[in-house]
Design brief:
With about 180 residues, this protein is an alpha+beta fold. The protein contains three helices and nine strands; from the N terminus they run ββββββαβββαα. The protein folds into two domains: about 35 residues, no CATH class; about 130 residues, Nucleoside Triphosphate Pyrophosphohydrolase. The strands form two sheets. Strands 4, 5, 6, 7, 8 and 9 form a six-stranded mixed beta sheet that branches. Strands 1-2-3 form a three-stranded antiparallel beta sheet, with no helix packed on it. The longest helix is centred in the middle third of the chain and has 13 residues. It starts with 13 loop residues before the first strand and ends with a helix.
Length: about 180
């Protein structure tokens, strides 16, 4: 991401080497703002609902893509609380964190995804406006995809004794998912 002006004082930014990398910096000595471009924290849920794993389709995605429930943390929110909130907002289900699956970089979006296994209470799934479809699959039928949350799915399934297979993606979609 590139900015033209300092968000603190409005001075035009310059590129400068800092901590071994070229960074956008404010040359104004009284300001000194540095754009570090740190990854954005995101939470993801491997949702287990009535013994099935829920994969959802976001309205903005290509038709063949289904994935985990994910979302951004709110200010002052812990990741375990945030992931349960996201499950409730996107699926209309109350849930409980069972375990942290792991942390996965999503370089294309400059995000770090904290993926949890969340088990929900029984009930009807109600999709919010971000989602238009979901699949409820037996764990052994879930396939992983070659990207951050897909690697989490693979890790989670393997930890449970499954031998997960990679989903078959069209070449252009595979290229989009695997570009860094």
């Amino acid at each position: 991401m590139n900015f033209k002006y300092c968000p603190t004082c409005g001075t035009p930014l310059i590129d400068a080497e800092l901590s071994g990398r070229v960074r956008q910096c404010c040359p104004e000595p009284r300001c000194g703002h540095v754009f570090w471009d740190n990854p954005v924290p995101v939470v993801g849920a491997i949702v287990e609902h009535e013994g099935k794993i829920i994969l959802a389709h976001n309205v903005a995605w290509p038709r063949v893509m289904f994935g985990l429930i994910t979302g951004f943390l709110e200010k002052d929110e812990s990741p375990d609380v945030g992931v349960v909130r996201e499950v409730q907002e996107e699926l209309g289900l109350n849930g409980q964190v069972k375990e942290l699956v792991g942390l996965y970089p999503f370089a294309r979006m400059n995000q770090i995804v904290m993926v949890y296994h969340v088990v929900t209470e029984p009930g009807e799934i109600t999709l919010n406006e971000e989602l238009d479809e979901y699949k409820a699959l037996a764990p052994e039928d879930v396939r992983y995809w070659p990207s951050s949350t897909g690697w989490a799915v693979k890790d989670w399934l393997e930890a449970r004794g499954h031998n997960p297979q990679e989903v078959d993606l069209p070449p252009q979609l595979r290229a989009l998912m695997t570009e860094g």
